[in-house]
Amino acid sequence: MRVLGVDPGLTRCGLGVVDGGTGRSVACVAVDVVRTPADADLAIRLLRISEAVEHWLDTYRPQAVAVERVFSQHNVRTVMGTAQTGGIVALAAARRGLPVVFHTPSEVKAAVTGSGRADKAQVTIMVTRLLKLAQAPTPADAADALALAICHLWREPMRARIAEAEARSAEIARKHKARLAAAARAGRANTTTKRTGTTR
Amino acid sequence: MRVLGVDPGLTRCGLGVVDGGTGRSVACVAVDVVRTPADADLAIRLLRISEAVEHWLDTYRPQAVAVERVFSQHNVRTVMGTAQTGGIVALAAARRGLPVVFHTPSEVKAAVTGSGRADKAQVTIMVTRLLKLAQAPTPADAADALALAICHLWREPMRARIAEAEARSAEIARKHKARLAAAARAGRANTTTKRTGTTR
């Protein structure tokens, strides 16, 4: 399975494509950072990022897109741009019918380093090691994009299995409820018939 | 001039097209609200909204798009969705080469009611009156989209004039600086020539 990981951002947007092999083996296909000038129009910056992402989707043909889930605890201005960029990426994927999954920073850190509180340096070291890269990807946004793709490759099978199990149990619950409702209706119908009988 | 005003939101996205005539006269061309189900995938919701906005841009052919600028002071989850939707709208406009301007809620309120602290009801009343509508647009998101378009029509000429004046004064300052630098260079060259003269 091939995944495009995206660390969204207006100034620097990290893009990383990773192939997942058997077991936990992973291989880096491509990694880069798209930059847009801070003094450019917001709409133009979003357009540039959108074009870059579409180009990557066309070039590398990933089967899924993993995007970092943003929280607004941080700097307000940055977060808005990050959310807008993430939306643009999700849209480009949805246009191609690709699944998009948002992963939190701690999920990503935990997946590649074993700790949800790992720092940027640790993430970069582990990404470099896991992908057997000759040198560490820079800037951090590039390493983060690769980490997101790895996180998705490793978490997704489990996530999908849990979702399937939940859907199955919801279906069983639905059928059970339907049977109960049918039984209740049958009981009421019976009572009505009896009553009608006595009125006649 | 025709403007598409957008009150971005994942659950309800207000869209309103307004034509500006001579002076401050304005006329409503179309108004509606795009809804997406809260239980749908984020990427799918963004795709639906994007398709609706593109359809409106194709159908009504506005010359500019006005979007509400979001702040993250409010509910975190809502704000993320609003920012993502706003980004999608800006992208659709940029794809068509249309200018996109973000207006703050208080700018919009001030434009249509005279007060930046007006409430939703006042905005709806003024929008209904200004556009001479037979009945108030509902829900509030629809009225807000129309208010955004009106705000843009009234503020934009002033905003453009100010930007032009600023650009002109920056150009004058730049030329003045260049002349000063040239004079300084000429002065230094003169000194060098003199020195070279004495050395020979």
Number of strands of chain A: 5
Q: What is the CA-based Rg of chain A, rounded?
A: 24 Å
Distance between the termini of chain A: 71 Å
- Give the strand content of chain A: 15-25%
What is the mean predicted local confidence, pLDDT of chain A?
90
Structural class of chain A: alpha/beta
Kindly report the greatest chain-chain contact and the residue count on each side: A-B, 27 and 27 residues
Instruction: Tell me the number of structural domains of chain A.
Output: 1
| Helical fraction of chain A | 55-70%
* CATH architecture label name of chain A: 2-Layer Sandwich
Characterize the quaternary organization of these chains: homodimer
Regions with little confidence, pLDDT below 50 for 5+ residues of chain A = none
Task: Give a written overview of the molecule.
2 copies of one chain form a homodimer. In chain A, helix 1 (42-60) packs across helix 2 and helix 4 (120-130) packs across helix 5. Chain A starts with a strand and ends with a helix. By secondary structure, the first copy, chain A, is an alpha/beta fold. Chain A has helices spanning 42-60, 76-95, 105-113, 120-130, 140-199; strands at residues 2-7, 12-20, 26-35, 64-68, 100-103. The first copy, chain A, is built from 5 helices and 5 strands; from the N terminus they run E-E-E-H-E-H-E-H-H-H. In chain A, helix 2 (76-95) links the parallel strand 4 and strand 5. In chain A, strands 3-2-1-4-5 form a 5-stranded mixed sheet, sandwiched between helices. The A-B interface holds A 41-44, 46-47, 50, 70-72, 76, 79-80, 83-88, 90-91, 93-95, 99-100, 102 and B 41-44, 46-47, 50, 70-72, 76, 79-80, 83-88, 90-91, 93-95, 99-100, 102. Chains A, B: Residues 181-200 are annotated as: Disordered. Chains A, B: Keywords: Cytoplasm, DNA damage, DNA recombination, DNA repair, DNA-binding, Endonuclease, Hydrolase, Magnesium, Metal-binding, Nuclease.
